[in-house]
Amino acid sequence: MLFKRRVPPGIVERLRVSLWPRRNLSRSARYVMLRLQRLQATPHRIALGAAAGVFAIFTPFLGIQLLMAGVISWVLGGSILASFLASFAGNPLTYPLIWFSTYNLGSALLGAKTSMRIVDLQSKAATLWDSVIALSPEAIGSALESLWPLFKPMVIGSLPLGGFAALATYMALRKAIGVSHARKQQKLRLRTA
Question: What is the mean pLDDT of residues 118-147?
Answer without folding.
Answer: 69
